[in-house]
Request: fold
Amino acid sequence: MATDQSQTQQNAADMADVDIKATRSWRLWFVLLALLAVAVTVAGKMFSLNVEKQAFLQSQGDARSVRVIQQPAYRGLILDRRGEPLAVSAPVATIWADPKETEVDHPGMERVYRYLALDPVVYKKKLSNRQSRFLYLRRQVSPEIAEAIRQLKIKGIHIDREYKRYYPAAEVASHLVGFTNLDGEGAEGIELAYEEWLAAEPGKEEVMKDRLGRTIRHIRSVSEAQHGESLKLTIDLRLQYMAYRELKAAVTSHNADGGSLVMLDAKTGDILAMVNQPAYNPNDPKQRVSSAVRNRALTDILEPGSTMKPMTVAAALMSGKYKVNSEIDVSPGYLRIKGRTIRDHRNYKVLDMTGIIRKSSNVGTSKLALSLDVESMRNMFYNVGLGRETGVGFPGERTGQLPYLKEKQVVERATMSYGYGLSVTALQLAQSYLPLANHGVLPQVSMISGIEKESPIRVMPQDVADAVLKMMETVTQRGGTGTRAAVPGYRVGGKTGTTHKVGGSGYLDDQYMSVFAGIAPISDPHLVTVVVVDNPKGQEYYGGEVAAPVFSRSVAGALRLLNVAPDNWSDKKTASRKQ
Reply:
């Protein structure tokens, strides 16, 4: 009995042990299955993150840390013919802010406002707009100021490197070179005309930045920066400075409204100097007003007056009706045509071709013009470049006017012979004198060095051009109208011109354009120079009184700088003895 009871208890214990083992086994499997499920879930999530959503997550991460920044490129240089810089690009900085991140209350912000000359009240309000992500604080800041702001380490304030255009010659070459706008794009002059050549293309680089906006790693270069191409002009900065000085002095001393001076290489047509008054400093945006910015030598037109008389004489010689020694009766000093009176300064009685130019006889040229075929004189004017563009490609260049005249328009034909009834620019006038200095051949005018030019064309016979050139020399000698244009030591020739300005109701009696166009030296022409002074005030207003002295001083200096040998030693010795 006792044995059976003991056996029963043993069986019960075994059964309990089996139940315990079964329970433990179930729990173990449950834990294992749970761990397996977690492992599968983690593996699935890892698979999803690393395979299915990798591109999305990578893009989201990059959007928060990877940036594409610009690598600044500098604009091409503008140089004179000798390599002297006329326009360069200097490194500067742009300061901008991210209002959403900017620490407006940072103690260094007051210094930022002071460095950049900003109104603290205005910019605190702008920086408090947390919806905005970009705000310019100041552009074209000097590197020193930019570095001082960088050292403040203000969150949300960013500094980008860029370039600012700087013009070493300032106002001396401003009308030619022009200037760029705030974005570094050409706005005037050569800067505008050759924008595609000079322009730079910034590069792009992919970088990684931290949450403070600092670059922590350079990833790759997206595109290389393309710097602008340099451009060399035909201008000689030495002559440009000298011409500017002489023209400014004349405009100031005669209280004139403005003026222009153009100097060309007589053999090539290259523009060696081109200056205007009033001028402006392109480095100072406040001076860029329309009255000062325009290049008057190319944009302002004028009636050339008596500077056209050499062309009229050339047309008469080419007609075959006249020779160099042909004489014209200009008495009694005036000519009546259809109720109009054309006058000379006095009665010169009889003048040959040289005398007509030397004495500047309106009656003489009028009689020549009316004796020629109706198109002869106009064709001469057109062939030497009047009434059409010079081809320099300068923005805003004007062509002037060269009207077609009928045979019955005798008054207009007569007045055109001495430079009324047509209009030219100062550059056109200088261009028209090139054939006289170049044995009858007209080279293409240019202001860019090294470009391919059209072949020179012959516009008048050599003997005619050479004869007229010698006639023009008498203008600067005793008895001529332009003696003040004489240059000691050199033979020079030219022609004076004085015209009434045109107003709203016709010609103005008390306002004039004073002009002198000349060539030097006569024996071997190197320079063609035109001087225009707009509305000189006072007792002197004739071209021989106002413009001729500017020609003399500027050409004298230019010939010395260019090492052109004197061709009038007797005159030089006389001048030395007088001193």
Notes: The first strand starts at residue 66 and ends at 71. The first helix runs from residue 2 to 52. DSSP finds 21 helices and 21 strands in the chain.
